[in-house]
Amino acid sequence: MLNRRRFLAWLYAGSLATTLAGVPARAGPAQREMHGGNGDESGRSLTLFLCGDVMTGRGIDQILPHPCKPQIYEPYLRDARDYVALAEQVNGPIARPVPYPYIWGDALAGLERMAPDVRIVNLETAVTSHDGFWPKGINYRMHPRNIAALTAARIDCCAMANNHVLDWGAQGLAETLETLASAGIRTAGAGGNLEQAQSPAVIPMPGSGRVLVFAFGERYSGIADDWVATPSRHGIDLLPELSRATVDEVAARVARAKKPGDTVVASIHWGGNWGYEIPAAHRDFAHGLIEHAGIDIVHGHSSHHFKGIEVYRERLILYGCGDFLNDYEGILSNVEYRSELGLMYFPTLEAASGRLLRLTLLPTRIRRMQIQRAQAHEVAWQVEVLNREGRALGTAVTPDGEDRLRVDWRG
Questions:
Q1: Per-domain residue ranges of the chain
Q2: Is this model's pTM higher than 0.70 or not?
Q3: Which class does domain 39-58+100-410 fall in?
Q4: What Cα–Cα distance (Å) separates residue 325 from each residue in 23, 160, 218, 329?
Q5: Residue 217 to residue 223: CA distance in whole angstroms
Q6: 126 and 172 Cβ atoms separated by less than 8 Å
Q7: For the segment 28-57, what is each residue's pLDDT rounded down to a tens digit?
Q8: Tens-place pLDDT, residues 285-302
């Protein structure tokens, strides 16, 4: 087993975990008054739940009641159950099968306590039993009969424009979309054709207003050009480039869909897997979406660890949310980034304007293929990293109670 773990270290550090050569974050604004915490909520407010990548395939799927065939097509491992064995080597045995709420663990209590109006995740797994895999080295899938693994957390919307949703081909994507729709889960960023892939998920709010979720992929996150949706082909919505012209194209789509009182989220799978640097192109694009396209929240993901947070013109930008759930336990590479540590993001917005009122984070960790509440020493590490990376972006994080973090910002 030692040789296998060494192989996995090489696998994720090198050939299959590309790192985007980014530009260090530009200097933040001059010192100004910090805002956040308990904002003015005199009008109607809206709280969202956002997180990083949710990867319920491969090893996670194997501990659920209805796993797919365990065969995988990686350079070394050929059985998805080996990822379970790796996790057990590090953190102890996992009883199988586990009930569906098991994988969410302490996150379920956090969701109930924070009571978000909308729950949005980046689902980086195909939900299919189709066996026609895309020959790319790493392929994730969860059996459709395990769809209760997502409904157990009452997910409202899955962003789908990422580098794993077509791991089992167009047929696998079609089954994924059908399964999610049958379970009442909305999707954005992928579809049976280009129009569907570019259409936002529309989530009505009680009373008035809606949340619109647009999802986009970027080439540097590992998305193949062959995965791009066309007028007659299943696929995802891939950004041609991070330019002002692309901002304008997104702005036109938002303008066609947005109504007064709507909140708009842009969920973007971009960049490489490792490294805290935020490329200038990402900052410029996120700022442009807020300034010119009517976006209220930029929900960025792809990095296997969380990155710095920015609040720009009273709008939230998450450049990288990290991994929220995966089967990476026992992989001995890039350990300095602590990819097992995650965050639950709960932004509260003024519904009428979309401006950020407050941002609360719940720190988590992955252990025995389950999301657990992070321990005190792990939270301290997360606070240190968030403050270090947020300094140039004008944000600071403070513990707020026993297991919550409050984000403040200059504005």
A1: 39-58+100-410
A2: yes
A3: alpha beta
A4: 28, 16, 22, 11
A5: 7
A6: yes
A7: 333 345 666 545 555 689 999 999 999 999
A8: 999 999 999 999 999 999
